[in-house]
Amino acid sequence: MFKLTSPAIKDGYLDVKYGINTPDQSTVVEGIPQVSFPIEWEGAPEGTVSYAVEYMDYDNAEDEGVIWIHWIAAGIDASKTSLPENGAKTDASIIHGHNSWSLPYGPYEELSEEAKVGYGGPAPGRRHTYELVMYALDIMPDVKPGFYYSDLRNKMEGHILDKAVLKMYYGE
Question: What residues contact 161, with CB distance under 8 A and at least 6 apart?
C-alpha cells in the first residue's frame, strides 16, 4: 500500500512552524511561509519512475473563491522515499510549478516571480484543511520549471500508478 506520512503532523495538525504562525518570521517572505515540512513515503507500486505532488487548500474557496495551490512539483526520482524539512526548496532535482500566489489580481500582482513558483506554506485566517497528494508515475513528466497545474494534470493522465494522500489542519 502506497502511504505518505510526516513527523510534522501531530493529532492531525501541521506543526505551527511550517506556516504563517511560525515563531521564526524570518522564514516568511512576502507574506508566504517558505519552509516545507518533512515527508516520508513507502509502498510505491512496481514500475514507479517518478513522483509528482500537489499541496492544496480546498477550504480557501470559501475565503477567496478559489482552491489554493500551495505547491505543485514533478520530477521526484523513484529512488527517493522522503524529503527533509525544507526539501521542497533545497532539492534541486525537483521541478516546481506555479502556486496560487501567481493569481493575477489584488495583492498577488505585486509578488516577485520567485514567490509565484514553488512551495508556499499555509497562511489561513482561520483553521483550514490541507491535502498533500503524492502520485506514483510510470513516467518522468515532461514539464518545465514554472509549469501550471493543468500542464501537470495533462502530462500525468494515463500514467498514475497510485496516489497517497496526507490530510492535515493548520490555523485556529
Answer: 44, 45, 47, 48, 136, 137, 138
